[in-house]
Amino acid sequence: MYDYIKGTVEFIAPQYIVVENGGIGYRIMTPNPFVFSVDGKVQTVFTFHYVREDLVALYGFKTREEKGLFEKLLNVTGIGPKGALAILASGQVQAVVQAIENEDEKFLLKFPGVGKKTARQMILDLKGKLENIVPDYFPNLFNDALETTAFGNNEQLEEAMEALKALGYSEREIVKARKVLEKENKTTEEYIKAALQLLLK
């Protein structure tokens, strides 16, 4: 129904952003809200309108590739919107695609809510079907390594911790990430990516 929304981001929460367009504030659920910024500039959010008997929501993404992978993940038995967001929150679309193509169940099992059965189903349903969704990631698919960064012990760190909770990570996992990464100072977006990369190792 909505392909994208252009507007200014007026509010950022651990689970969603509010984008104003034409005097209307759209509440959009997104994998990592902190990749957006409240700076008064017009931003494009690629959206997916999700409708279910008990839920109607807008999901938004920085790129069409993320949106495309989100839609594909929703077609996998055992994965709902929350699970798909958690998978995309790392910002490592290429790594997820690589894991599916390489049948790397161990990597997929590190995401919240993904068990052996779901990981296997992801591979069965999506392997060989993602090139049209994320074509830019395929040329270097087997050469690129995941980056690692660090967390800071400040307000941005707290925002990142809240975002991890919203994605479904346990307190034990969050504490583990904090202990390892709390010595550095980064932006909230960098903190979230760093924590997710740590948790996915």
Automatic annotation (TrEMBL):
Domain Helix-hairpin-helix DNA-binding motif class: 71-90, 106-125
Record localization: Cytoplasm
Function: The RuvA-RuvB-RuvC complex processes Holliday junction (HJ) DNA during genetic recombination and DNA repair, while the RuvA-RuvB complex plays an important role in the rescue of blocked DNA replication forks via replication fork reversal (RFR). RuvA specifically binds to HJ cruciform DNA, conferring on it an open structure. The RuvB hexamer acts as an ATP-dependent pump, pulling dsDNA into and through the RuvAB complex. HJ branch migration allows RuvC to scan DNA until it finds its consensus sequence, where it cleaves and resolves the cruciform DNA.
GN (gene name): ruvA
Domain commentary: Has three domains with a flexible linker between the domains II and III and assumes an 'L' shape. Domain III is highly mobile and contacts RuvB.
Name of this protein: Holliday junction branch migration complex subunit RuvA
Region described as Domain III: 153-201
Gene3D superfamilies (UniProt xref): 5' to 3' exonuclease, C-terminal subdomain, DNA helicase RuvA subunit, C-terminal domain, Nucleic acid-binding proteins
Pfam family, one: HHH_5
InterPro entries in UniProt: DNA_helicase_Holl-junc_RuvA_I, Hlx-hairpin-Hlx_DNA-bd_motif, NA-bd_OB-fold, RuvA, RuvA_2-like, RuvA_C, RuvA_C_sf
UniProt subunit comment: Homotetramer. Forms an RuvA(8)-RuvB(12)-Holliday junction (HJ) complex. HJ DNA is sandwiched between 2 RuvA tetramers; dsDNA enters through RuvA and exits via RuvB. An RuvB hexamer assembles on each DNA strand where it exits the tetramer. Each RuvB hexamer is contacted by two RuvA subunits (via domain III) on 2 adjacent RuvB subunits; this complex drives branch migration. In the full resolvosome a probable DNA-RuvA(4)-RuvB(12)-RuvC(2) complex forms which resolves the HJ.
Entry similarity comment: Belongs to the RuvA family.
GO biological process annotation, one example: DNA recombination
The keyword Amino-acid biosynthesis is assigned to this record: no
KW Methyltransferase (keyword) present: no
